[in-house]
Records
---
Amino acid sequence: MKRMIKTVLFLSALVTFSAMSEALRIEITQGVSSAQPIVIVPFSSVQVVGGLPVDIAQVVSDDLARSGRFKSLPRMDMLNKPSSADQVNFRNWQSLGQDNLVIGSVTPSANGMLTVQFQLFDVYKGEQLTGFSIPANRSGLRGVAHRISDLIYEKLTGQKGAFSTRMAYVTSMPGINGKQEYKIQVADADGYGTKTIVTSSEPLMSPAWSPRGDKISYVSYEGRRSSIYTQTLRTGQREKLRSFKGINGAPSWSPDGSQLALTLSKDGSADIYIYNVITRSFRRLTRSYAIDTEPDWSPDGRQIIFTSDRGGKPQIYQISANGGQAGRVTFEGSYNARASYSPDGKNIVMVHRVNGQYRIATLDIKTGFSNILTNGKLDESPSYAPNGSMILYSTNDGLKSILAAVSSDGKVRQKLRLQGGEVREPAWSPFK
Amino acid sequence: MKMYKNLVMGLLLSTALAGCSMFGGDDGTGTGDGVNGGVNGGASTTGVGDGSSFSGHPLDNPSSPLSTKVIYFAFDSSAVEPQYEAVLAAHGAYLAANAGVSVIVEGHADERGTREYNVALSEKRAKTVQNLLSLQGAAGNQTEAVALGEEKPVALGHDESAWHLNRRVELIYPAH
Amino acid sequence: MGLFKKHPVAVILSVIFHLALVAFFVFGTDFFSEKKIESKPVVNIVKATVIDESKIKAEAEKLKNLEKKKKLQEKKRLDDIKKKRLAEEKKIADLKQQQNIQKKKLAKQKADEAAKQAKLKKQKALAKKRKAEAVKKKKLADAKKKKERLAREKAEKLKAAQEKVAQEQRNREQALRELAVAEEAEMRAQAAVASYTDLIRQKVERNWIQPPGDITGLDCVVRVRLIPGGDVIDAQVIKSSGNAFFDRSVERATRKAAPLPLPSDPSMFNFFRTLEFYFRPGG
């Protein structure tokens, strides 16, 4: 009897199953963490007399690849090079496994100006995602290309792009007279358009952008003692902050641009002080016999994190910008220093020593979850991109110090090749 | 070590030859010497009496602890090691005896760790040396502690043999 | 008395019957003799005869004679009476004897009767017995017959049942064979579905570029419609994760993975006509 029932049930199930043209359920629990394939077809510019000084598609392609989130198709692999929508055959790009397609063109407009137009397509859906028409002049084409990279990046990731930003950094190399020459330089986020803003025969350190990106503060050892300068980029004019005996260092701008946190040792050991930019007065923030240095402001301007060895070894502490008791933030490892907040205030990035090696690590403030992003021996000076997606830092390639970038989740790392000489202490500018 | 000494000697000599005359006051602190040196900073005169044939500035006398002007430190430490106590005692005494002489006590650190923290660490070293000098009688205005952090290494390697040389305090006397 | 209350009718009847029985035994011989002997209790009536004149002389004589006669008669009467009495006695004796005889007869009859009855009874009993026996025998026979019949029936039933069972067995076996065949086909189909599902899953996973950032906890369902050969004719997000970029990445993964691997047997296509992908990173 039992058997019979079983039979009946089975048969009915069979019937149901085959009669069920219902969906077959498939569970997907993982994918690949790799860059999105994208093809950026060279923009056509046939109508522009004299050609273009900038290969826009190449700039965009390099930008997106540098972010670590995209993988650009090499030009030699492109089957054809459409520059308008009617020339696009999605099947071609599907067969190349390219998820995204960008085509564009540059045409002359009135008064010697140019119009740069581009379209972004979803290859597998066969539809346009976005398209823009941007006016430009010949000298501004690079900036337009970066703007296009921002627009594409935002459309495909939902995050604001940081391709139109800049970075400041310190270089050190033998000068003409054989003496070491130090410079602070500012370049586009892709390393182009390098400009030197200050040169010195004595060390330069700790460049720090003002919140609007119009000034850079830094430490200079000209006169063989440290002092802090604030220089306006556009004019090159600079102002020296009042210097004290001992250390004058580690300047950090408040988010509203009204104050600078910095390190002074005039009262004994290195401590954090707050400098009011308007009144030019100093206020002492920390008082300890230990070393307190390397301050950084929280995005809401209320907290300051800093390095302190008051517990014996360097660790990260936090204190209200108005003063008070400092509380310890890092508890893993015996060396944590030079911390700074992510733009959304949720994480801090710092230098963390593990097994004698100095690496870049992030710490989630809420969960306490920490993540080591790099694997060098002497990684330092981390600086967040203003969209929080990447971190610039200094590392050593075995020969000299260079700059590198790592995605904030640690998955993609890239070295930046800038120029000869030692390159270090990168500072990512805010959004323009 | 030898190379370094030569370098320092060379630098000091060339400074001397360049005619720098920031040196003020007497020279000749050798024992039993009755010497007065050139006030205008030219060549320095000799002192006789202790049998040494050195005829240069006491700070440059190779058999004097004063010729040692760099003190090295252990990793992450600002404690002066016993072997340098005599050197600092000598410098301290020298300063005490030469009120017009001032010295820059320049602290350094090796490249490991963050740059601004290393500035503060090198300052601790400089200040330790500075304290020892004043214990020996140097006046406050004779010494100035300056912290250079890791910014001016003397050795460019990335291992202990280089780092060891960079963890130092230099006593920088004006040219004499 | 309780018995009376319980079964009043029975008790009354019982009493009546007992009384009847008593009556019967008391008066009962008549009952039996009613058939054969018509006699009732004999009442002898003496009839006296009158003499006439000559009687008178006759009467006197007669009287004398009568007297004599009377004497004689008396004697006779007495004798008669004696005789009668004797006869009576004899009669009575006879009667008695007869009665005895009758009694005996009766008794005998009774006995006979009884015997007869007994015999009858016996016979009856015998008959009854015989009957009973016959009945019994019959019963037995019947029973036997019945038994046999039952046995036969049983046997037949059994046979039928066995037959039925055998038939059922055959049917079952048949069904099982068919089932086995179907099962096997089903299992093959399921195995094929399972293995192709795995292939499809792997291909989609290979083609799914996860958006950056923390995506654990997000889940999205994409319904995909295929045509034979595995090409995707439609892919739609039917349950959004709330994150547009996550949704887009999973939809794209399903499109990009086309053509999806399908078994070459076209009859299997139905299983794969519509797929629902549940994207849930981290499981």
---
Amino acid sequence: MKLLLVEDSERLQRSLSTGLRKHGFTVDQAFDGEQALSYTATNQYDVIVLDLMLPRIDGLTVLSKIRSEGNDCHVLILSANDQTEDRVRGLDLGADDYLVKPFAFNELVSRLGALNRRRSGIKNPVIEIEGVKVDSVARQVVFDDQPVALTPHEYQLLEFLARRRGRVFSHDQLIDQLYDAGSYVTRNAVEAHISSLRKRLHLVGAPRLVKTRRGFGYLVE
Amino acid sequence: MYSIRNKLNFTIIASMIMVLSIAAVFLYVRVAGHVEKVFDDALYDKAQAMISLTELDEEGLEFDFAEDGVMLEFQEHQILQYYQLWENSVELLIKSPSLGETDLPRLGTEPGGHQFADMILPDGRAGRLIEINFMPRVEVEDDVEDPGYGAVIPPAEPITMVFARERETLDDTLFAIGSTIFGVIVIVLLLSGLLIWRLVGSGLSPLSYLAKQVSTIDESNLDARLNHEGDQTMEIAPIENQLNHLLERLQSAFEREKRFSANAAHELRTPLSELKTLAEVARMVPDDRQQVVSFFNDIGEISGQMEKMVATLLELSRSEAGLLRTDPENIELAQYCEEIWQHAINGEGAKKSLLTHIPEGLVIYTDREKLGMILSNLFINAVSYSPDNAEIEITAEIRNDNVVLEVKNASIDLKPEDILHMKDRFWRKQTIQGESGHSGLGLTLVEALAGVMKLDVNLRLDNQQTFMVTISGLSPSVH
């Protein structure tokens, strides 16, 4: 799940992005409204975590601009403003959720997970395909009651494709979705993750879920 | 609580009842007196007519009015009027047949006089009498051929005559007059009451409209303004204007308070949020020593900022509560400014220089600690909000026996309208939020401390984007 974290506090950025990456999120960081708009213009995000009091362009303006540009990604407002009118204004402008600072980090992760499920149209946090269960809350993959040991990137790859069953994603699309904007990732790295994922599933006797469409990319059928 | 309308109505109507009652009583007394006088005059005239028909001649007293057919109203069957005459107030001379066996009362009138009185007539009706004391007219025979010519006439004695008649017609007239006056007064009062009720209501309608509008205003709609129906009234206009000004000030105060609360909440929630997230995420990476150490550094920074903000808020609170006192002493200004600058530049870690234009040896007499806090805040702001490598200038001049201190620096992205808000609590120019360490309380504290020290703080921005803070009112040394 790829998200854009728009927050002017560098310290909060540091801790949040560390924690979110630890939970398997792909995080891009923007420190002001201009930067946020620049990121959204060139990247596709599943969720944008948006502070309201931002330098240069405030959060509500950023929100209304990305909505007016037709960007339908989920937006979670993360703000110290706790007044009902602030929440109403944010939600009316097109935000999908509103979380008041200070917040519990786990709650933020859960809300992001819920937004992601809403986006994929699968409300059950556990996706089951041919006996392979992908638990998006525990961030665990189980086959035949045996846990499959996956790295965070492998898990992300599997959950991303499992949530979008039947859709083919190219190397570039997968890089875009699964890695930070600042990361330098090659096609080989993606292929290496796919190969490793297949091996780990094979080790527990799970079917080969991730298929290759030559010349197009990968998918989970 | 009473109603002005009711009170006005009650007061005006009560006053009208009182005035009209007095007028009615006065009118009745005057008219009744006049009618009674006319009645008494008629009694008197009748009595005088009877006196003129009383004469004394050689044959004695003659009462021509008592002759049959002369005055029928005294006949027995005509029981309307009565008379009775006495000689020397003692000897009954004659009385009307209508009296029968009864007598008329006596009042004891002096000779030549007359008086009136009410009485109950023998037939039981209310009546009125006149008693006249007179000397009979002496009839001397001057016709020599008359048999009585030259006869001796007995001496005339004073005669008392009482003439009485019923007063029903008088009473009926007085009753008619009284009831007419009363009726007119009641009708006038009723009509006036209705008219007063409507006129007072109409006159007070602008006030009622104003009261109705005011009663709908509470803290949720302080943006509402009072207006008026139709033409503005001279009495209501100043109230309406003053209330509208009051509402504006109230709205502004509420908004300021709300903004302050929101800002205070924001300024406290953001570092709390940072601390909470740092703690939670640090628990997730216990083995990443480098990361955990970096988080601890962040926690230290946040704690320092929060401590500074709480200290500033406490200082402001003490200043507002009037708990801050000044402890003036002599300060060598140039040297002290340099000390404060060095401290500020260390805190901010900036590489900017201070240009000092302070007369050598200038000593001022003021509170060292508070002046230090003021200068420190001004220097830190100047360093933070000026372009890289900018020079900060401090100037001191003596004007009108006072020392005027000015700190100026080139500003970044400051607008003239920002000057209006710079002393507001938590106000910050957005572009330098984040890790700047500024809570937006510096200039608020400067203003508060200056207030305690009885100094004026003036902020200006010139066309060249130079921001200037002028502090005036500092006293030169007492030596």
